[in-house]
């Protein structure tokens, strides 16, 4: 009985591992498909709140990323005036491998994500969220492609101090041939420090 129990546990564990691998493979394939469809300085922000995608499927973003020794700052806007702002901070943040930053409202400099869109364009009424906890990971980081994975929770700007109103958030930002603004740092310093583009 003990052996069969151990065998059963192993089967369950293998099943979970296979499920995790298949999910990762599906995510990687989706990112590759998105990247192929994008043009220079175009991005897709595929992020879901409580399982529902926030931006319309046809949204395409353009913008700029600013890089310095202390911070990465990404600002993107789509054709519907939806905006996404992401930042990663810390001295030589780019030297971390992999680049993973924890999100904490008490330390917004370390990592932050703000997402918004117009829900009533005529009256210029918008809906905005701020990431409250979780992590941001650069799963691809190169001068011609940047992919950020988002996992955690968000709160509306009006509710971000009320944890009981936070909702789950997960998704990706895929940015092809980004427009880069260099501030007190060089291309070699940033991209020679990380192997994520290899």
Quick structural summary:
This protein has 2 domains: 1-37; 40-191, no CATH class. The chain contains 2 helices and 11 strands. It has helices spanning 2-37, 187-191; strands at residues 42-49, 52-53, 61-67, 71-78, 83-89, 99-104, 111-120, 125-142, 145-156, 167-176, 180-182.
Radius of gyration over C-alpha positions, nearest whole angstrom = 19 Å
| Low-confidence sequence ranges | 16-22
Number of helices: 2
**Helix-strand string:** HEEEEEEEEEEEH
Write down the overall geometry. globular
- Helicity, as a percent range: 10-25%
Beta-strand content estimate:
over 45%
Distance between the termini: 48 Å
Mean pLDDT level: 87
The SS-based structural class is: alpha+beta
Main sheet characteristics: 11 strands, mixed
Number of strands: 11
Q: How many domains, in number, for the residues? A: 2
Q: Indicate the multimeric state.
A: single chain
Summarize the structure in words.
The chain is an alpha+beta fold and 198 residues long. The protein has two domains: 1-37; 40-191, no CATH class. 21% of the residues lie in helices and 46% in strands. It has two helices and eleven strands. The protein has helices at residues 2-37, 187-191, and strands at residues 42-49, 52-53, 61-67, 71-78, 83-89, 99-104, 111-120, 125-142, 145-156, 167-176, 180-182. The longest helix is centred in the first third of the chain and has 36 residues, at 2-37. It is globular and about 45 Å long.
Topology:
Elements: H1 2-37, E1 42-49, E2 52-53, E3 61-67, E4 71-78, E5 83-89, E6 99-104, E7 111-120, E8 125-142, E9 145-156, E10 167-176, E11 180-182, H2 187-191
């Amino acid at each position: 009985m003990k052996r069969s129990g151990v065998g059963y546990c192993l089967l369950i564990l293998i099943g979970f591992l296979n499920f995790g691998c298949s999910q990762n493979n599906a995510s990687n394939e989706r990112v590759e498909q998105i990247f192929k469809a994008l043009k220079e300085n175009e991005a897709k922000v595929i992020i879901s709140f409580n399982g529902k995608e926030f931006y319309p499927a046809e949204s395409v973003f353009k913008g700029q990323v600013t890089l310095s020794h202390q911070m990465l700052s990404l600002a993107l806007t789509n054709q519907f005036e939806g905006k996404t702002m992401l930042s990663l901070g810390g001295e030589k943040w780019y030297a971390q491998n992999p680049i993973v930053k924890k999100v904490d409202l008490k330390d917004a400099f370390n990592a932050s994500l703000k997402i918004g869109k117009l829900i009533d364009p005529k009256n210029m009424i918008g809906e905005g969220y701020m990431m409250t906890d979780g992590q941001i990971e650069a799963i691809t980081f190169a001068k011609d492609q940047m992919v950020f994975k988002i996992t955690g929770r968000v709160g509306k700007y009006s509710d971000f101090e009320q944890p009981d109103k936070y909702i789950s958030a997960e998704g990706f930002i895929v940015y092809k041939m980004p427009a880069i603004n260099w501030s007190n740092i060089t291309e070699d310093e940033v991209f020679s420090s990380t192997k994520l583009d290899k």
